[in-house]
Design brief:
The protein is mainly alpha-helical. The protein is flat. It has 16 helices and no strands.
């Protein structure tokens, strides 16, 4: 848990605008923004470019606020993990109290902006998303249970739901299917990276699946989730709100996803095993982005 800096000697911040931008977790934010945009595009509403653009901005700011608050809370474990030790807080460029104030202010602004521009239902969903990621996942689940990413991944699955609600003012089956696709995709996506970075998580005391249950169990669960992810990706086509192009893309992509998961399951040691995990991790991002892009493309150009 991060020290918010209230008991530390007061010092001037050395942060640059780039450091504050890094607090937003821009790579994570980009996927959030994209999936939320697809939710907006698919939703039944009379398109209003300015309203949709501001709604998307509010969702992006909410995602950034979540990232900042997550880094405030996780500063202690970020400091001992090789892939995160250069983040602004553990590197000493931003003091924890600044990150906390920045994240809270941005959260309030994002939720209020979405409520005023779109509707308060979507604003409530955005507030819940921020709460779930920061409190439920970061503060409660991440350090206490091996199922942290299985449950906590729901936060990353909510942006298309928020986008749909911002455009339509209500929910229906379609955004819930999009939620399910991302929620089921998240564990094999994240565990493939966790297998590579398991030593980092062990040093930080984070009970990720490879640390607690071992790499063999992790590989079995990656394969099991991949076998669920592939047919779930076909659901929009099966339910009739995606066309044949999407169905073909989902079928091919799902097959490759499972094939890469089988490779992770079979290759257990050495550079080849790490490479297999890396390929699955990279492809999983392309798979999700490709499916959502196809959904949006079919709707925009049909």
């Amino acid at each position: 848990m991060s020290d918010i800096g209230l008991s530390s000697p007061i010092r001037l911040s050395t942060a640059t605008p780039g450091d504050y931008f890094a607090l937003l977790k821009p790579r994570v934010m980009s996927l959030v923004v994209f999936t939320a945009l697809v939710g907006i595009i698919l939703a039944p509403h009379r398109p209003h470019a300015l309203v949709d653009a501001i709604s998307l901005l509010a969702i992006a700011l909410g995602a950034g606020a979540s990232g900042a608050l997550n880094q405030w809370w996780d500063a202690d474990i970020d400091a001992v993990m090789s892939r995160t030790r250069n983040r602004p807080i553990p590197a000493g460029r931003i003091v924890p109290g600044e990150a906390l104030a920045f994240g809270l202010t941005l959260s309030v602004f994002a939720v209020t902006l979405l409520g005023l521009v779109a509707n308060w239902f979507s604003a409530g969903l955005l507030a819940f998303t921020i709460f779930f990621y920061v409190v439920v996942y970061s503060m409660i689940l991440k350090r206490r249970t091996v199922e942290n990413i299985v449950i906590g991944g729901a936060a990353g699955a909510l942006p298309p739901v928020v986008g749909w609600a911002a455009a339509a003012g209500s929910l229906s089956l379609e955004p819930l299917v999009l939620f399910a696709i991302i929620a089921i995709w998240t564990p094999p996506h994240f565990w493939s990276l966790a297998l590579i970075k398991s030593d980092d998580y062990a040093r930080a005391g984070v009970p990720m699946l490879p640390v607690v249950a071992g790499p063999d169990v992790t590989r079995r669960r990656i394969l099991a989730y991949a076998l669920l992810t592939a047919p779930t990706g076909l659901a929009p086509w099966a339910l009739g709100f995606a066309g044949p192009v999407y169905g073909i893309a989902a079928a091919i992509g799902g097959t490759v996803f499972v094939a890469l998961a089988i490779a992770v399951f079979r290759l257990r040691e050495g550079p080849a095993a790490r490479a297999a995990c890396g390929r699955l991790f990279a492809f999983s991002i392309l798979w999700l982005a490709g499916l959502f892009a196809t959904l949006a493309g079919e709707r925009l150009f049909s």
